[in-house]
């Protein structure tokens, strides 16, 4: 921040004293903000057990519990990861479909009145503001714990973000084909089918894949609050301090995320 | 429907190479997607029917959340501010840690590839771990409280800021760097007078962006015991006090919106 204001003070129109006062005020404000935040952080000191706990965590991470990878009859790592993957696929698809009408509602070139697209944008940003974990908790209360709540949470939360990206795509399309079709007497539906959709679909798919990469990261944490997936065995292992199991689960999550990133990147390159 | 068909027929007669290739691959792609979706919905037993029947339950939950219990506002103000404090400290410390690592990773400043490539790999590894997982681990090490949450956000922001910043550093104008190397500047001088003036606005902008993300993250860290407003939300939901939960959610919304708005204005001025 300090260095940021110095190039501003060099501008010819501002007086030197004015910019110095501004600089001092900004510095004071920042110091006050940090003083306030450090005050609020009551640091109880590292617990006496922290050393041994850290050592056992390191031990656990170095010796992952390989037997947990596949258990014939019960909840194991592979099933948990599969659930996580499935939740994020379904959540992304739900969002990718649900947000299409929202996107057309919110894009400025699809409606004549600014009020229409403005209200759509506001609705999307309100949806976007809720963290998905909070959405997940609400859905768990409504439909009970399990994968279904996770799918709904990811779906609803992603609508906000995807709707915004979709709307921006629709706003940036080339008007030429649209005008040509209108001039040759096409109705609105035909314009949509032959002028708008061919231009936006590849971009829509690409954004959905990008969202899928984010959703799979979120899906790993959804289980921590009870919304299904790998997070559920993870929170149990954390609660009983079974660090070997935590180690193998974290390893599994990292491998899953790297693999899905690779696959989704490959598909995305094929689409565009 | 008719117009394009006749167009393609005339096209075929006029110029055969202009006909678009058949779309078997595309159809195959959509078929695979549908097959995957059906498999997924069998696996989780999530069906469109369930989606429709689930909505009324959601509606009844929303009805229970209103009217919000406004008197609870005075109780949650303190934890809400703690949430913001966690986010401020976590973002700042993560950002400070990110500076040296970003300088190491940037390919136009790197000492050697044997340093920058492993550093990047570690960054990628850190970014695969979600914030809530960090928080759950740190709560186990440092006990329940805001300190564990702050540490989680330090690691989380470190991953984001370091990645964005090293990409910004790689994109800077090489002119000043070459000029300074030509007149004999050492590495420190190069960084201070060549890199920092160009990359600092981007760094500040990423710092603010991460702060926005972190305020949202900090609001839910309490669910795993890492301090902030999430703990109270968890408690209110556990006691079925949905009127209190709605106050907490509304206050979180307001704080997040205010911070987003302020941060967007500052970022627009920076860049």
From TrEMBL, chain B:
| Residue spans crossing the bilayer | 27-44, 86-110, 122-144, 190-209, 215-233, 245-266
Please indicate if the UniProt record lists Transmembrane as a keyword. yes
Q: Where is the ABC transmembrane type-1 domain?
A: 80-263
Gene Ontology molecular-function annotations:
ABC-type phosphonate transporter activity
Quick one: a GO cellular component term? plasma membrane
Task: Tell me which UniProt keywords the record has, alphabetically.
Answer: Cell membrane, Membrane, Transmembrane, Transmembrane helix, Transport
What does the record say about its membrane topology? Multi-pass membrane protein
Localization, UniProt: Cell membrane
User: CDD domains in the record, alphabetically?
Assistant: TM_PBP2 (cd06261)
Q: What is its main location?
A: membrane
Instruction: Spell out the family assignment given in the record's similarity comment.
Output: Belongs to the binding-protein-dependent transport system permease family.
Q: What is this protein called?
A: Phosphonate ABC transporter, permease protein PhnE
State the organism named in the record. Answer: Paenibacillus dendrobii
The protein's gene is named: phnE
């Amino acid at each position: 921040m300090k260095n940021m204001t110095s190039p501003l003070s060099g501008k010819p129109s501002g007086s030197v004293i004015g910019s110095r006062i501004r600089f001092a005020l900004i510095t004071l404000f920042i110091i006050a903000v940090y003083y306030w935040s450090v005050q609020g952080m009551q640091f109880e000191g590292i617990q006496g057990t922290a050393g041994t706990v850290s050592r056992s965590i390191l031990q656990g991470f170095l010796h992952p519990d390989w037997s947990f990878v596949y258990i014939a009859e019960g909840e194991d790592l592979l099933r948990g990861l599969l659930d996580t993957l499935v939740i994020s696929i379904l959540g992304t698809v739900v969002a990718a479909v649900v947000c299409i009408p929202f996107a057309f509602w919110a894009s400025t070139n699809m409606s004549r009145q600014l009020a229409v697209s403005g209200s759509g944008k506001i609705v999307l940003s309100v949806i976007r503001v809720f963290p998905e974990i909070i959405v997940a908790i609400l859905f768990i209360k409504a439909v009970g714990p399990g994968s279904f709540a996770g799918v709904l949470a990811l779906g609803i939360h992603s609508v906000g973000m995807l709707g915004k990206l979709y709307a921006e795509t629709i706003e940036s399309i080339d008007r030429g084909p649209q005008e040509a079709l209108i001039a040759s007497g096409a109705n609105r539906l035909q314009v949509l089918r032959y002028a708008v959709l061919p231009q936006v679909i590849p971009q829509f798919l690409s954004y959905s894949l990008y969202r899928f990469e984010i959703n799979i990261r979120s899906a790993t944490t959804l289980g921590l609050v009870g919304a299904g997936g790998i997070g559920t065995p993870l929170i149990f292992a954390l609660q009983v301090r079974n660090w070997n199991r935590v180690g193998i689960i974290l390893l599994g999550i990292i491998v899953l995320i790297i693999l899905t990133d690779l696959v989704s990147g490959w598909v995305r390159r094929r689409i565009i | 429907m008719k117009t394009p068909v006749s167009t393609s027929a005339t096209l075929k007669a006029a110029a055969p190479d202009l006909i678009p290739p058949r779309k078997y691959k595309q159809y195959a792609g959509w078929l695979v997607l549908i097959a995957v979706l059906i498999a997924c919905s069998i696996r989780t037993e999530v069906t469109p029917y369930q989606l429709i029947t689930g909505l009324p339950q959601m509606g009844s939950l929303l009805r229970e959340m209103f009217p919000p219990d406004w008197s609870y506002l005075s109780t949650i103000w303190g934890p809400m501010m703690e949430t913001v404090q966690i986010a401020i400290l976590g973002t700042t410390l993560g950002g400070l840690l990110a500076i040296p690592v970003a300088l190491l990773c940037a390919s136009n400043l790197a000492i050697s590839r044997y340093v920058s490539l492993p550093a990047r790999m570690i960054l990628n590894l850190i970014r695969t771990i979600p914030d809530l997982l960090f928080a759950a681990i740190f709560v186990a090490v440092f006990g329940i409280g805001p300190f564990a949450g702050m540490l989680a956000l330090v690691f989380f922001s470190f991953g984001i800021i370091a990645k964005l910043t090293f990409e910004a550093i790689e994109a800077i104008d090489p002119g000043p760097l070459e000029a300074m190397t030509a007149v004999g500047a050492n590495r420190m001088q190069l960084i201070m007078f060549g890199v920092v003036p160009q990359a600092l606005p981007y760094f500040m902008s990423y710092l603010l962006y991460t702060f926005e993300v972190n305020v949202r993250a900090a609001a839910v860290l309490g669910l795993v015991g890492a301090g902030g407003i999430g703990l109270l939300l968890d408690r209110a939901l556990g006691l079925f006090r949905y009127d209190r939960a709605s106050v907490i959610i509304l206050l979180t919304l307001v704080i997040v919106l205010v911070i987003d708005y302020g941060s967007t204005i500052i970022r627009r001025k920076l860049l």
